[in-house]
Specification:
This protein is α/β, with parallel strands linked by helices and about 230 residues long. It is built from nine helices and seven strands, in the order αααβααβααββαββαβ. The protein folds into two domains: about 1-40, no CATH class; about 40-225, Rossmann fold. It has helices at about 1-15, 35-40, 65, 85-95, 100-110, 125-135, 135-150, 170-175, 200-215, and strands at about 75-80, 120, 155, 155-160, 180, 190-200, 220-225. The strands form two sheets. The protein has a five-stranded parallel β-sheet with strand order 1-7-6-2-3. A two-stranded antiparallel sheet has the order 4-5. Helix 4 (about 85-95) crosses helix 5 and helix 5 (about 100-110) packs across helix 7. The structure holds zinc ion (2 copies). One zinc ion binds near residues 22, 23, 25 and 34.
């Protein structure tokens, strides 16, 4: 019984404002975290300018972006996809926790892209994911950020329900996603794709390609976190 009480208490605190989402100490005024936890988050301190994969000190681009530049110009991902961000993304994505979503949006606003762009573009889900999960985390974040920044959200259609990307390598992912997205609404010149986590950048590349085809002249990516790949 004691254990149960502890779990419920912890869960309640997690879902209420006023407590740090990571250690449950009182949060900083107006934020979802305490100063110690904010400082200890896995910040992405040495990212590739274009895809945000961590690079060795001093380099501005990773080997992949040097050899095969993606269709998007830059990626802003302030954090690495490691604990406790992993748990936060999991709570948001699979348990539809609005508090986790709000925290991710707040963390994104702490590390915004250099230029804001004229519109935010959310990543459409596959029909299978949409049926299973029922909510699109990318659209949710784009809407939230759009309200804060005063820029509109534009959406794309997913016309190809490609197989799961999980087991594929970078090249296979790119081939799997070619032609997967279509944008029918007119686009402004500078579009920023919003997502919770960037994994290989293949989705961003395919969606950026579609946005350029639909009339945008520049596409950037803005995500909460980046999965560090090293070599992939
Ligand atoms: Zn804390
Ligand atoms: Zn790169």
């Amino acid at each position: 019984m004691h254990q149960w009480g502890y779990c419920i208490n912890r869960w309640l605190k997690r879902s209420l404002p006023g407590y740090c989402a990571f250690c449950l100490a009182p949060a900083l005024a107006g934020g979802g975290w305490c100063a110690t936890c904010l400082g200890e988050l896995p910040w992405n301190l040495q990212p590739c300018h274009q895809c945000a994969d961590p690079v060795s000190h001093g380099a501005s681009l990773c080997g992949h972006c040097l050899i095969e530049p993606p269709a998007f110009s830059t990626t802003q991902a302030g954090l690495l996809y490691q604990e406790p961000i992993k748990q936060l993304v999991h709570d948001f994505k699979f348990q539809a926790s609005p508090r986790a979503g709000t925290l991710l949006a707040e963390l994104m606003l702490l590390t915004p892209p250099m230029t804001q762009g004229d519109a935010l573009l959310s990543v459409p889900m596959t029909a299978t994911h949409a049926r299973a999960r029922g909510f699109n985390q990318s659209y949710w974040l784009a809407e939230r950020l759009s309200r804060q920044l005063g820029v509109p959200v534009v959406t794309a259609k997913r016309v190809k329900d490609s197989a799961s990307q999980r087991t594929l390598n970078r090249r296979q992912r790119a081939a799997n996603l070619a032609g997967a997205f279509v944008i029918e609404s007119p686009l402004p010149a500078h579009v920023v794709i919003v997502d919770d986590v960037v994994t290989t950048g293949s989705t961003g590349h395919a969606l950026a390609r579609a946005a350029l085809d639909a009339g945008a002249s520049r596409v950037d990516i803005w995500s909460a976190a980046r999965t560090p790949l090293g070599k992939d």
